[in-house]
């Protein structure tokens, strides 16, 4: 197929920041794109060839959107999979395949998948309703503390809560959920696996999430992770196992725990470009967005090595600020070497909303880490 | 001024490939853009916020286009400068400044500028009409061979001819022109200088154009140039002199000759992102398009060093092919490490038309050069 000519059409469900960064690459290769998003202010609205405003959960909207595209992909998992399945059955190439997407969409199913395929993951119990958990605690079937996760549609920390006392269960929605063992981890890691339509597979280097010592919030995504080679290899092997058994196509971002005993446990996966791969735009030979396009179009995968050390800092809305966004001190961070801000284009900020990210690259990791800290201490996402 | 919010508007005259690559960066920073181009199929038509279809040489069109933008820039020199001057007088920030643009637009004026400022350049004679040249040859005022250049609107080798015999003058247009001494050069080099609105200046490394041994056509743009440090420093010094005396703002691409005696002579300049800087997208800490935006918005300039060695190969239409474009064997070059094609999105190819470029990066220059040769031998821009 000639992707690099006008006969081909790529559909993307979701028009947020991930879709926007995918569009840098479709523009680079002049690939015709059609994007759907519920918001009239979606960052993708420009840069795509066609834009459709509709809900990603609406069966008819998704089905009608996908009928005239050659390849259909997603930038977010929360889409109507029934419509995707119908399209897939009618010959549209849907990547990730709907089977993998269904497994991932439901966290209980996802966890069962790991167990079924002997993929190491924290032990867990599935509950049809949150209300069943209290009984399980009373009769000794479940020990406190644990991590409660809603089975459906958790995204960016939504739908996740650490439960230390029965009190903590009170405000949780009464839905299908899992109670997962709290992992005492040394590091939180991630590996992005790329797999194309003809089965070629490649992994990116292991990245490390560095947490704020007090706030328990990811502050930096660091590539490569500052861990032993042996641990890194194990992490990549586990990620490859997940990819293989899921038969996924495109990118699969595998989030992992490195335990105190250097075990590797799968936390969860996302079948698309991922926040943990944003560093690749500036640091890698092939950035994750180009790689996703290569994979779903059946093109040869690109080299996943890094040119330089890369660190990513998320730009999230500051607490106490809701309204028209201002990126305070952005000109100060532009003075620092190897610093590239990405502004997603959302007009309104609110506390903790992802508004952009900043990549810091340097041939020396220690220096990159120093600059990253300065960036973090300098820039503020506020409202006027 | 808050560039990173919705109050600011950047105007770009010209919607071709350079504009398109500028738009990657305005999208990255969510800067509101308005683009004008005569073609309804301009590559910039998507990715900008507003598109106006009109001739860049039309006074009224340019003036009306520029009235509501905060900063106005160009991706091509052939624009109506009178309209720009009127806008400049009315308070629109026009970069490059119209004074520099006028100097550059006319090659005779440009050459006189070098002479006036003691900037080394090949000796030349200005003629009001090509027809005056024959007299000058007959009376011994001008020696053959020389390079004939039209004073106005030469672009991409148009309006330039090597004159070896009086016969060669026959088909040339009877216009204002210069006859320039033919330089016996060892290397053709280029230096991109960035200068922002507050006078901060930075230069990119010297690049080298490698020519095909027989066809006398640039095959590769190589960064860094494989020349002695001393020569590179001299080239950068000369480029800085041109920038300083022109008081330009934005990017200035300075094309240079390195003579057999290692003298550096200025060939010509372009006050905008330039083909010789395309390698920077993949190889540099700050690519030339982001740097141009930093410069014209008065932001701090970014680091111009390279992360890795970079080589650029232009994708031009093959001889004998006119029509709907096909990029033959593009999938083969995608298998090679560190290879990134850029497809400009022109639907029709014709012989020698610039349709895209390919960047090859590697930590090792010799290896990059080998891959570049394979790329060149593999890909073909043809029609179906």
UniProtKB/TrEMBL annotation, chains A, B:
Reactions mediated catalytically: 5-amino-1-(5-phospho-beta-D-ribosyl)imidazole + hydrogencarbonate + ATP = 5-carboxyamino-1-(5-phospho-D-ribosyl)imidazole + ADP + phosphate + 2 H(+)
Biochemical pathway: Purine metabolism; IMP biosynthesis via de novo pathway; 5-amino-1-(5-phospho-D-ribosyl)imidazole-4-carboxylate from 5-amino-1-(5-phospho-D-ribosyl)imidazole (N5-CAIR route): step 1/2
The protein's Enzyme Commission number: 6.3.4.18
Domain ATP-grasp: start-end pairs: 111-297
Presence of keyword ATP-binding: yes
Cited Pfam families: ATP-grasp (PF02222), PurK_C (PF17769), RS_preATP-grasp-like (PF22660)
Record's keyword annotation contains Nucleotide-binding: yes
Enzyme class: ligase
GO BP terms: 'de novo' IMP biosynthetic process
Coiled-coil parts of chain: none
GO molecular function terms noted in the UniProt entry: 5-(carboxyamino)imidazole ribonucleotide synthase activity; ATP binding; metal ion binding; phosphoribosylaminoimidazole carboxylase activity
Sequence positions that bind ATP: 107, 149, 180-183, 188, 267-268
GO annotations of cellular component type: cytosol
Keywords: ATP-binding, Decarboxylase, Ligase, Lyase, Nucleotide-binding, Purine biosynthesis
Job description of the protein: Catalyzes the ATP-dependent conversion of 5-aminoimidazole ribonucleotide (AIR) and HCO(3)- to N5-carboxyaminoimidazole ribonucleotide (N5-CAIR). Catalyzes the ATP-dependent conversion of 5-aminoimidazole ribonucleotide (AIR) and HCO(3)(-) to N5-carboxyaminoimidazole ribonucleotide (N5-CAIR).
Family annotation (PANTHER family): PHOSPHORIBOSYLAMINOIMIDAZOLE CARBOXYLASE, PURINE BIOSYNTHESIS PROTEIN 6/7, PUR6/7
NCBIfam families given in the database record: PRK06019.1-5, purK
Quaternary structure, from the entry: Homodimer.
Family that this chain belongs to: Belongs to the PurK/PurT family.
Protein's UniProt name: N5-carboxyaminoimidazole ribonucleotide synthase
Species in which this protein is naturally found: Flagellimonas ochracea
Lineage, top ranks: Bacteria, Pseudomonadati, Bacteroidota, Flavobacteriia, Flavobacteriales
Gene assigned in the entry: purK
């Amino acid at each position: 197929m000639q992707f690099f000519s006008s006969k081909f059409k790529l559909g993307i469900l979701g028009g947020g920041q991930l879709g926007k960064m995918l569009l840098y690459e479709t523009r680079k290769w002049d690939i015709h794109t059609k994007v759907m998003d519920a918001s009239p202010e979606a960052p993708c609205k420009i840069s795509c060839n066609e834009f459709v405003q509709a809900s990603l959960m609406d069966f008819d909207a998704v089905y009608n959107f996908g009928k005239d595209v050659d390849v259909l992909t997603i930038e977010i998992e929360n889409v109507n999979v029934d419509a995707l399945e119908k399209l897939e059955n009618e010959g549209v190439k849907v990547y990730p395949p709907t089977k993998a997407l269904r497994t991932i969409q439901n966290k209980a199913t996802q966890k069962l998948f790991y167990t079924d395929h002997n993929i190491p993951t924290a032990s867990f119990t599935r509950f049809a309703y949150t209300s069943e958990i209290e009984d399980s605690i009373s009769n000794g079937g479940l020990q406190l503390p644990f991590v409660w996760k809603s089975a459906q549609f958790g995204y960016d920390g939504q739908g996740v809560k650490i439960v230390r006392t029965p009190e903590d269960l009170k405000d949780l929605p009464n839905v299908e959920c899992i109670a997962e063992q709290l992992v005492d981890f040394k590091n939180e890691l991630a590996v992005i696996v790329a797999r194309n339509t003809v089965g070629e597979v490649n992994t990116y280097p292991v990245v490390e999430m560095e947490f704020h010592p007090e706030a328990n919030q990811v502050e930096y995504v660091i590539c490569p992770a500052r861990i032993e080679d042996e641990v890194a290899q194990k992490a990549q092997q586990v990620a490859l196992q997940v990819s293989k058994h899921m038969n996924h196509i495109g990118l699969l971002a595998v989030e992992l725990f490195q335990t105190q005993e250097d075990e590797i446990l799968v936390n969860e996966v996302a079948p698309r470009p991922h926040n943990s791969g944003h560093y690749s735009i500036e640091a890698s030979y092939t950035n994750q967005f180009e790689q996703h396009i290569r994979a779903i179009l059946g093109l040869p995968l690109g080299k996943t090595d890094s040119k330089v050390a890369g660190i990513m800092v998320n730009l999230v809305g500051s607490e106490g600020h809701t309204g028209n966004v201002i990126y305070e001190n952005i000109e100060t961070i532009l003075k620092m070497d190897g610093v590239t801000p990405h502004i997603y284009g959302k007009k309104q900020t609110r506390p903790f909303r992802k508004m952009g990210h900043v990549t810091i690259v340097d041939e020396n990791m220690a220096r990159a880490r120093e600059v990253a800290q300065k960036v973090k201490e300098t820039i503020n996402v506020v409202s006027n």
